[in-house]
Amino acid sequence: MDVFAGTFVGLLFSVLCLGVPGVAIGLAVYYSRRARQRHIAQMAAWAAYHGFQYWPEEPSALAISRQVPFTYGSGHQALDVLRGTFRDVHLHCFQLRYQVSSGESTSTHDYQVVAISLPAMRPLLDIAHENSMSRRFDKDIQFENRAFNDKFKIASPSPRFAYDVIHARTMEWMLADARAHTIRWRFEGAWLLTFRRGKLNPHEVFYYADFLHQVLAQVPKHVWSDQ
């Protein structure tokens, strides 16, 4: 019996045993699986074209970070995992998925994660954006540039590392570069990573990877040997 014949038999069984609601559920499951299979095939083809390895799901990818949003919710998954090399460093991309339960309802949340490898392990340094609430209630590392402090929220357990990485020229670059005003990024362990809400879009991977490379280019050489 081929796949389509098997599907027809399954739908016929649903009609006989469950009626119309059963058919609707069966069709939804069937088309969802078909859509996922098509998506996996497309991702695998994209990865092969660009010389990357691809896994539809790979739990080990979740070890890249121990900070938000990786600490939110439960049932964490790393979907559409891509690993390869971009501009002579390791490139690591995937879709983080987790669930949040509230009372009787459960919601699913997705984040796109793009990361490049660092020359050496380094402390956490998180670069986010200030808003009215964070300015009022959150404490962060302050710099001599007031315009920079008003725009960016810098957090790290190592102020020395933060000041070494974010020097005067880097602050000027961040204030002038429109991408830095919308992209959040983080140094953590062996990785420099960025994340945004939503599913992984392979067409955005090199955009974010290029930005991370420009961030990395701002870091003085001594940072990788003096810590």
Structure description:
- It is built from eight helices and six strands.
- It is of the alpha+beta class.
- The protein has two domains: 44 residues; 175 residues, no CATH class.
- Strands 1, 2, 3, 4, 5 and 6 form a six-stranded antiparallel beta sheet that branches.
- α1 runs antiparallel to α2.
Total domain units:
2
Low-confidence segments, ≥5 residues, pLDDT <50? none
Structural class: alpha+beta
Residue share in helices? 40-55%
Most strands sheet: 6 strands, antiparallel
User: What is the arithmetic mean of pLDDT?
Assistant: 89
Describe, in short, the structure shown.
By secondary structure, the protein is an alpha+beta fold. The chain has helices spanning 3-18, 20-50, 132-137, 146-151, 159-165, 168-176, 205-217, 223-226, and strands at residues 53-57, 74-86, 89-102, 105-129, 152-155, 185-197.
